[in-house]
Amino acid sequence: MAENILEKLKQTILDFDEDAALDAANEALAAGVDPVEAVGALADGLNELGDKFERMEVFLPEIMLASDAFKNALSVLEPEIKKRNTEGQKAIPVVIGTVQGDVHQVGKDMVATFLTTAGFDVHDLGVDVAPSRFLEEAKKLDAKIIAAASLMSTTRPVQKDLIDFLEAKGVRDNFIVLVGGGVVTQEWADQIKADGYGQDAIATVEIAKKLLHVA
Ligand code: B12
User: Where does the record place the B12-binding domain (predicted)?
Assistant: First the structure.
């Protein structure tokens, strides 16, 4: 039963069907499907569509519709995921955003949701975020973590610019910098001296907790 609904969720993304995505998300919750698994199924769909895009089997308008379908379904699933937030834990401020020049948002939103669920106080700066803005907001919020996403090889260098900018301002050691996104690897994170790399939303929560020495 749950398997079928997960497959259905994924299919709504492959069909770039916004209404069906919303309905399937509601159906998943009604059937007691784990909302985290449901989000995983949607992400599988989007990644599969990404491969089709690469093979020129689908085009940008379809991808845009699919990501809107994803966001529709997430709007239903996210409140359920957030309900799991650990009560009573001191919320550690985190700023997150997609780097300047890059408007990909879906994966970053997933990471923000999972960090919130794990008890972090997440401030999402959105997409196309300049290094100076990351720092400005991090200072304002007394953030411990700056998390920067990049989905394209053309914007990946901006993650390095961010770290260089923090160094130039003499504040590099005040923050844990996490990097991630489709084009990012552990090797790249090491190369630019980021503190951590998150391959997916779950791994990001784990690395954030590990670096902050929280359970
Ligand atoms: C959806 C999508 C779009 C949508 C984005 C809509 C939105 N609101 O987000 C739209 C249609 C707008 C779009 C536009 C473009 N796109 Co696009 N897009 C994609 C696609 C198909 C899926 C991305 C996605 O959402 N994946 C699903 C999520 C769940 O995965 P994820 O983002 O990787 O996130 C996970 C991890 O990476 C990690 N993570 C994510 N963020 C972070 C952050 C931190 C801090 C950490 C630790 C971890 C982490 O956790 C997430 C959850 O597990 C990818 C293909 C792909 N396979 O990635 C192409 C892709 C990224 N796009 C691409 C391109 C080229 C473009 C355009 C330039 C196309 C064009 N010709 O105009 C424009 C760029 C516009 C811009 N300036 O940014 C290329 C990039 C190629 C490259 N290597 O440089 C890709 C790879 C497609 C391809 N194969 O060619 N795109």
Answer: 91-215
- Six-digit token string for 201: 């939303």
Residue 86's pLDDT band, with cuts at 50, 70 and 90, is low
CA-nearest residue, atom 69 of ligand 1? 60
Ligand 1 centroid to residue 170 C-alpha, Å: 32
Using CA atoms, how far apart are residues 24 and 156, in angstroms rounded to an integer?
Answer: 34
- Rg over alpha carbons for the chain, rounded to the nearest Å, is 17
Domains of the chain and CATH, by start: 2-82 (1.10.1240.10), 93-212 (3.40.50.280)
What pLDDT is recorded for position 153? 98
Tokens of 42: 């949607």
- Is there an atom of ligand 1 within 6 Å of 152 CB? yes
pTM attached to this predicted model: 0.90
- Cα of 197 vs centre of ligand 1, distance in Å, is 17
